[in-house]
Design goal:
single chain; mainly alpha
Length: about 140
Amino acid sequence: MLIDEIKKANMLALKNKDTDARAALSVVINKYMISSVEKRAKGQESTDEDVISILQKSLKELEEEKVMYEKANNEERVSSLDKQIASVKSFLPQMLSEEEIKNIILTLEDKSIKVVMAHFKSNYAGKVDMSLVSKVLRSL
């Protein structure tokens, strides 16, 4: 599972004293553990899709934090966040490009927002930024 790879990378970061990678990966692992406990309480198993969702949320949080530190002109923290973002991104699958999203939308018979968003959510979960899908759909 993907979480096992993240745990190995976290241990490697610990051994290499890479505090930035360790900080980001530890947060992901902790969020996964919480999610896993919640899923087990419901009688469900955690999957790689859950890990990808956690990675995406963590990435979004780190990017928002980076913007705040850029506004505050804290270059040292921005540099640290860049390294953390790179650590998280390394575990995410390749995301669909704007052009690929557009081509997929054009192949669909019903191009209503509800149908298109449901199609991408069910078929491309973790491989597409839903806000980008919405943006591309509105531009058509």
